[in-house]
Design brief:
This protein is mainly alpha-helical and 262 residues long. 38% of the residues are buried.
Length: 262
């Protein structure tokens, strides 16, 4: 296990030369989408989208690191930049999903804001996942194989923990959809907004699963050896989630609900 390889006393960070063009392309894409989210947040005063923006910033600079690594693949700087930021970016985006469900409950069911709520619990688990993943990735440049193996296990544990938490959150979203479908006539974009929330959770869950496989297989694994896997199962899913939240931004949903007589 391990995402780097030691050969003749030297550290090899990539089993290939990363594509600078692909890295810079996704830097531009994530940068543009993040900028749109910033404009929407200030325009609509949806401050709880700050984690989404932080996630977009992490993704942007992470893919800048990929582009940089395409020019200097043997330097630790670009490797750490892309590993750490691309790894933790979805943690911030997931936090936005957790808070959004709470906002939907307030907007659709007129529930009061509570300090101790399922949203608070999921945000707390997100903080734990962030700490484990950032801590495990930081030790990848220590040069000590034993410490780096421990870091790999810490990151792997954080990803598995996040998989379990997100599975529980998906069950909560499905339960919420069933509840509102029975008691409220969902109109137009509201129904699709809840479906979009569930789809986003599934997308991030699959992304995390692929990262678990990557850390489990190590440097010589199929995921690590094929750069396309990063863009297919990480870059594209995360940019898709951010775009979905622009299309189904809570501010654009309006009231959109009508309580049923039953």
């Amino acid at each position: 296990m391990g995402l780097v390889q030691f050969e003749n006393g030297n550290v090899i960070y990539f089993p290939y030369v990363p594509s600078a063009a692909a890295g810079y392309a996704f830097l531009v894409l994530f940068g543009l989408v993040t900028l749109i989210h910033i404009v929407l947040m200030f325009k609509t005063r949806t401050w709880y989208f700050i984690p989404m923006i932080l996630g977009g910033i992490c993704e942007s600079f992470g893919y800048y690191g990929r582009g940089w690594a395409g020019r200097e693949p043997n330097r630790p700087g670009p490797f750490m930049l892309q590993l750490m930021l691309i790894l933790v970016g979805p943690v911030f985006i997931a936090a936005t999903l957790y808070v959004t469900l709470g906002r939907y409950k307030q907007m659709m069911l007129n529930e009061p804001t509570r300090r101790c709520s399922p949203t608070s619990f999921f945000v707390l688990t997100d903080i734990i996942a962030f700490c484990t993943q950032i801590g495990g990735s930081l030790v990848q440049v220590t040069g000590n194989p034993n410490i780096m193996k421990i870091g790999d296990k810490v990151v792997l544990g954080g990803l598995i923990f996040q998989l379990c938490v997100m599975a529980g959150f998906l069950a909560l979203v499905i339960r919420f959809y069933r509840l509102t479908y029975r008691t409220i006539l969902l109109r137009g974009r509201w129904r699709w907004a809840i479906i979009m929330l569930a789809v986003s959770i599934v997308v991030i869950w699959v992304r995390n699963l692929v990262r678990v496989i990557e850390f489990g297989q190590g440097f010589h694994g199929f995921v690590s050896q094929n750069e396309a896997m990063l863009y297919i199962f990480d870059a594209l899913p995360m940019i898709s989630v951010m775009i979905l939240f622009i299309i189904f931004h809570p501010r654009f949903l309006g009231s959109g609900t009508e309580r049923s007589k039953a």
